[in-house]
Design goal:
The protein is an all-alpha fold. The chain has 4 helices and no strands. It has a single domain, classed as ACP-like (Non-ribosomal Peptide Synthetase Peptidyl Carrier Protein, Chain A, Orthogonal Bundle).
Length: 85
């Protein structure tokens, strides 16, 4: 996994959360916990569904529970599916 793809996915997540949730894109870093930005479990499930569709990776309930930060999410996507980034 390269830093290029990690950065590219982080930027896509920033764009999506800014557009969909009105979040400050500068507050979203690899080590930022979802809860720190006020995202709840329903938000995480919605994001997981978006990632499944966008990146072709299956994220089940157990995986969602283990993903705490944006870096966790990006690493999971890169390790478990064909990324169409």
């Amino acid at each position: 996994m390269t830093d290029y793809y990690r950065e590219k996915l982080l930027e896509q997540i920033r764009e999506w959360l800014e557009a969909e949730r009105g979040l400050d894109r500068d507050a979203i870093e690899f080590d930022t916990p979802f809860k720190e930005l006020g995202l709840d479990s329903l938000d995480l499930i919605e994001m997981a569904m978006e990632w499944e569709q966008e990146y072709g990776v299956l994220i089940d309930d157990q995986n969602v529970a283990d993903i705490v930060t944006f870096g966790d999410a990006i690493d999971f996507v890169l390790a478990n599916g064909p990324v169409a980034a």
